[in-house]
């Protein structure tokens, strides 16, 4: 009998596969689902008796998928070291210092060895099908890593290798970590895992405690408190409290509250989550957002007294006015507008916010700072800012002479100058925010030198003092000018007199 050629062999295999596919389609269409599942379970059980390999799956989301698995993230970081050398299908994204970071693409496989044991990693995904799937709203994708190894290495893999992967992965993640600034997305579709709860960008704010214009004693106290918190994991576990701490930053506008947050993030190397409460529909959505906040992060709600009606004292004046309208067609149009207003108003409540800050949900995560800022601390509900919720209250006030010296060094490189005494005297007699002081110290042209900037600041301080005290300042202004003139060269003196 003439042996079959290679082409004939492939033709037979193709026809066989086609027949099997037709048979499987027939079974799916005419055999009941319950019977098919029973057969599949039996086949899988039979294969498990003969298959010498063990598989472990590590899913990106567990349960309802409220939070990414720490184990999945650790495996992702661990495998990234071998990805560039061994994987054939890669994904690239911009990482720290604008360098591309490579990771495994879907369905890619990698081989790893540990103490003589050979293992295989693969990245897979499950696309759930269901009646809720549409073109514009596809069903969620569930990704997971699959680890395969021979059963003879079960003890080595489960007791040693996986621990090694977790430890190395977490260390690699910290080394490659880039600080990020997050904000919540108002149009998020909560039913889809493919949507983004938080949007983020790289957080490269240059502010630090060294450049922060506040009293040096207060600055050191805050830094010590932050470092003690970041090293306090065992202490918080010992006293039975969630590893989180609340900071209330309050003071007039322009006193550096936002800059303080950036300095805190830089000192501790934390991410920042800027929560916009007015974009959150209700307490349920708020809870989902807050659960997604990662460890080593700062959750910020700026101007909390303006974000929502959390005190129960303020009302929506427009809605109240429209509700009171009760005549003819005007009433009908007003009712419609009231309905629209009520629909758009966030239903986040004070109790919903407090439950996460200091309730049962406060333990969902660790090493978190919660920071509120406000210009009017008196407007806030006492329950919101009591100790235990906002543990440390930090008042950021007007610019002191100590803070001015920090700004002078930052903006002009000066640690001392003959005009400093005059500036100190004026600062003791008037109030100016660090933001206004900094604006006057900033050169407005290439011709501006340090003395010109200092003179601009002195003039601004005199104007503020004149607004407060009135005509009395004009009587003493000549004395101040003469005192400054004695410390300056003739050209600077003439400029000051002209001003």
Automatic annotation (TrEMBL):
GO terms for biological process: response to stress. InterPro entries: AAA+_ATPase, AAA_N_dom, At3g28540-like_C, ATPase_AAA_core, ATPase_AAA_CS, Mitochondrial_chaperone_BCS1, P-loop_NTPase. It catalyses: ATP + H2O = ADP + phosphate + H(+). PROSITE patterns: AAA (PS00674). GO terms for molecular function: ATP binding; ATP hydrolysis activity. Keywords: ATP-binding, Magnesium, Nucleotide-binding. Belongs to the AAA ATPase family. BCS1 subfamily. Residues 243-400 form the AAA+ ATPase domain. This is AAA+ ATPase domain-containing protein. Its cofactor is Mg(2+).
